[in-house]
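Input:
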Amino acid sequence: MLKKKICVVVTARPSYSRIKTALTAIKNHPKLELQLVVAGSALLGRYGNAVDFIENDGFTVDEKVFMVLEGENPTAMAKTTGLGVMELSNVFYKLNPDAVVTIADRFETIATSIAAAYQNIPLIHIQGGEVTGNIDEKVRHANTKLADVHLVASEEAKERVIKLGENPDMVVNTGCPSIDLAKEIAESPNLDFDPIEKYGGVGESINWKDGYLVVMQHPVTTEYKQAKVDVTTTLKAIDELNIPTFWFWPNVDAGSDGTSSGIRTYREIHQPKNIHFFKNMEPNDFLRLLKNSKCLIGNSSVGIRECAYLGVPVVNIGTRQNRRERGKNVIDVMYEKDAIKDAVKNRIDSEIIVSEHIYGDGEAGKRIAEVLASIQLHFHKTITY
Amino acid sequence: MLKKKICVVVTARPSYSRIKTALTAIKNHPKLELQLVVAGSALLGRYGNAVDFIENDGFTVDEKVFMVLEGENPTAMAKTTGLGVMELSNVFYKLNPDAVVTIADRFETIATSIAAAYQNIPLIHIQGGEVTGNIDEKVRHANTKLADVHLVASEEAKERVIKLGENPDMVVNTGCPSIDLAKEIAESPNLDFDPIEKYGGVGESINWKDGYLVVMQHPVTTEYKQAKVDVTTTLKAIDELNIPTFWFWPNVDAGSDGTSSGIRTYREIHQPKNIHFFKNMEPNDFLRLLKNSKCLIGNSSVGIRECAYLGVPVVNIGTRQNRRERGKNVIDVMYEKDAIKDAVKNRIDSEIIVSEHIYGDGEAGKRIAEVLASIQLHFHKTITY
Amino acid sequence: MLKKKICVVVTARPSYSRIKTALTAIKNHPKLELQLVVAGSALLGRYGNAVDFIENDGFTVDEKVFMVLEGENPTAMAKTTGLGVMELSNVFYKLNPDAVVTIADRFETIATSIAAAYQNIPLIHIQGGEVTGNIDEKVRHANTKLADVHLVASEEAKERVIKLGENPDMVVNTGCPSIDLAKEIAESPNLDFDPIEKYGGVGESINWKDGYLVVMQHPVTTEYKQAKVDVTTTLKAIDELNIPTFWFWPNVDAGSDGTSSGIRTYREIHQPKNIHFFKNMEPNDFLRLLKNSKCLIGNSSVGIRECAYLGVPVVNIGTRQNRRERGKNVIDVMYEKDAIKDAVKNRIDSEIIVSEHIYGDGEAGKRIAEVLASIQLHFHKTITY
Amino acid sequence: MLKKKICVVVTARPSYSRIKTALTAIKNHPKLELQLVVAGSALLGRYGNAVDFIENDGFTVDEKVFMVLEGENPTAMAKTTGLGVMELSNVFYKLNPDAVVTIADRFETIATSIAAAYQNIPLIHIQGGEVTGNIDEKVRHANTKLADVHLVASEEAKERVIKLGENPDMVVNTGCPSIDLAKEIAESPNLDFDPIEKYGGVGESINWKDGYLVVMQHPVTTEYKQAKVDVTTTLKAIDELNIPTFWFWPNVDAGSDGTSSGIRTYREIHQPKNIHFFKNMEPNDFLRLLKNSKCLIGNSSVGIRECAYLGVPVVNIGTRQNRRERGKNVIDVMYEKDAIKDAVKNRIDSEIIVSEHIYGDGEAGKRIAEVLASIQLHFHKTITY
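Output:
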């Protein structure tokens, strides 16, 4: 029997975590053949070299696509996307897949969508239908309108995609594969490694064994000039709290240099004694680190998604996760030093937080592979109203 | 007072007809400054050199963007779009407009949308919310999700854009500027020029004075290999009808070479005595030619839109205009020689056809300029549900 | 034993003829592995679909690279080259060859050279060291300066490459593979097919059996606006001579549309009775057609190279072959109707023309493969003075 | 009178120093109009934001071209060049200059050359004819073969360009504009600023007032994996010498991340007490810093060129400046810690070094403008032999 060729494009470190268990399930499914394309910042050392983790996890990378243009402005982000369309068009022409999978809503994911849709290849969109209120939202819903099949992560997302005029038969709530990883961690949650010993990083060699915070703050793409100011506010709050903290470097975006530069400047001047910085961490280790932390601070979607499942307290700062469905584990604050400090204290003192299954029950990867194997694929659709 | 800079991107000959009166109204509006970008096939001789008409009409072209990649497959179409994103990103970075206008749903229009949206420039989409059922539909609705303001051409379109989750305050039914041209023609409909004398063209020097047909048939992008077969069917039908006919060359698309090649082959072998071929015609002259014709045959949207207003009979072939709102002037047939012949005969014998205002009342251009001058522009939005 | 991977990039129909026997010899050599990349106009129907001939000849194409940008100006030519650098960089990164072969001097060949040289892959340049006096010359000698090994086609070329500061050990006169094909034809010269029956083409069905001319005229890239005027002059001369003639369409270049348009216009108006037009022909058939013709007219390098070996009379028009070494078979004229006519008459009446081995003895393909197999490859060099 | 439009493309910080006085002279010349394009790493913060210095010096930048692709491998370098060809083709199409100036031999300079030559714009190459023995040499001599006029920096360079087959009338030894800046400094050499106070930088606040070293070490592009090892060797040598040292960050190149990463790692682990690091410095301040230093160490061409004029001792490490003409001020060593240390000690103890005018007498800028104003420009040439 001929296997269906499923081409998945991973363009960034966080996208890999959101698709990993699905990649495994596709690879192992008797009716499917996995074609894996790694592109964009997932190939770059500055952004954590996701490609190394991918290959270490035993996946074969069929194509590597260098497409990130340097520059501290949104023009570079737009041009990176254009270049991505050109390069991925070549890749799909060559790999000739039966379907292409695009993940979520980062700016460059629309390159995958266009390259597939314009070449009449059925397009599967993972994690459509969510709502955040920034540039990601334009990209995410545009991906929905270019896609033929929608594998969403929550019931609310499913309803929204259907409201967008998509055929309900083509919209399936599989849950988010990132929760699959969280499930594994929740089943055996001990912190079985020393983060500094294993990952190095820079900054003080903090004493984390009696409890620690985790910070992950990305620039907000439509307000990129603010990035440096914003990260400095959070740095001050954490510095003053003086609790041992692991801080993660941001991933690529217009303005990531603002955030990075903010961090570098602050370190040079203030040399905060309680913060250790990491560039990246294997997804499993990262979740385990979160599971054992007192609180996650920042604006990462991990706080909204995985931490809901894991029952980890979260202080979510700013507008980046605006309007995303969230659980009781999250407190929202703006970029104000004292508000951040108060919220962290509140979260640390809160009672035990219960796991919520908003973004899936931990079986998303297998469910995605199953849908891909059984669904009738088309590249032609029409709006339902 | 500082004028709002409105940057309009015209990428093809037919798009120019659909925006011309709006360009004039923007140029003449005291609160607006027009920045005109001509790109893609609008710059190419093979597709009618729209740029010459634009400059002859008195518009100054601020930037010319060469971006069409050669090739007889959809890969070239996709890569053209990617290149368009890169080039238009540069152009908007340099022109620094207050808003960018993208027109309708051709594949390359999403390049305009991405280049503007990713650089945080408010994006105006003209003619969203319609429904056709081909690749154009994916592009059109994706444009809607990337755009901040929607200037639509019919009430049905307005409702559809709002259903897509757009803020109703940002959706205005202006009507289609192409109808503005039709209105001018309807007010003084005489055919005041000799088409062959004025435009040359190739093929027999037909006697058109006692009545003639017009044919305009484009390849259907998701079925491009069929292009040659389809055009040959229509050629046979028209050849057998033996009524004097003006036939227009298709515009650029994957497969236009299929259509073009079909026409060339048929001419070489059959030398049809009743058909004269044109590459292009000034929009006004074209509408006047239609207004005085017995019937328009093919799959052009002109048959659905302008001809409804003009009251010209239309035989619409195939799926290209699927689900578009249409008037009583249109008969739909598939690509079958005898069906086409019968439909043409039926249309020629039909009683007088009444003008219908489905796509506007002839004042769209001015209305678009007025909205652009008065609306508060944003580049940040969120879905309404 | 590990075979040396030799990656050859063919970007146009004429380049294929110039490398074909070398491709065969590389493919069959026990120490070499052929990686074949077909790019640019060699993939396009408008320019003769060289890729079909290549595949029909039994070669496997490893990568196809669509890179030709449409446009009637030199800007498109430059951008095509830039796109070629980007695309071929990807291709070489993926194929990871031990050496890359770039052929001659068309504008896009420098894309191959840059993509290889900048990735530290040893670069072999075929047919450097010649001299013509147009834009090709800039490209050809720049290719020489980027290349590590030079396989040239004549003794004069060898001396010139050494004068350019290249290490004499890295310059080998192999002769030109195009002459290998000519040798085969010369050994069994009968015209064993009916050109019109086999290749179709357009125009009158001329009576060629009692002798015929062949015309092949390309636009001269640095004077592209002249292309239409020039081709019309030649058309008039041939029309007036009224000898049966096979005329070949030009290959892609800025201005090829000027030449094509000149041909189309002339045909439409004058309908010359003695000319039949072809888009392309298999190289062997083309050489056989030449061998049996009364004279070749135009500005093709085939007249200078293959026809010297074949002993075919040539009227070479204009500056395109300026300063190229030539044999006694050639008369040079400028674009003047009467001069062309007189030269053709002179050539037809000339006595038998002797074969000259200026560009090789017919064993170039094997010699090229042998050098590639035995030479020590480097990507690092320094000028000799 | 119509001024000749001279378009100069600056793609990196060091290129700016090499052209600055010529830019001023062109700007002020009554017969010339300066069109200034800033591109590539000259626009990027990571590489010193040369564009800010350019604008602060009073130049108007006509076009900014973002073209640097991220990636730690030579593929990114090649693709950056391809993108540069595309972007600069647009820029020259729009600016329509009478001549384009490309500077020296960095990998991306060939993009300028191709974009100009292929659009039939006369190309001026500055600083051709030198010899170094790395990838730069391929680029430099290829630029020569694409260029129409050659403004070289030494008599040896002039002879070499003529040997390359260029018309001697089109080769002028103007000297190098970088020496013009050196002349100004030599005329008033006092160190009139505090480097750390003015430029910040990172690392120890060294006591430099009693004498200091300067280090500038770039990765060698054809050996980029060695970059980290090499820079570590130099760091160890300087660390052990324990003389106050100003160290400059490298500019962009494949492998600059190797060098940068080597520096970061060394700092993190060894925290050298005698080294202060700068990202960049205004050219004048940098030369003044050199003039007052005990010795320059590394592989920068500044050591070979400006330091010869300034009479500053230099320890030149490795192969990067191989075969470049040099003065008595230079000692060459390989990447061996003790050899570097010994050479520095030797240089510090050497007697006074005499200024040598190998690369010009300090009037190059004016001479370049004068040649551009008076020379007859062509875009058509042929090799002289």
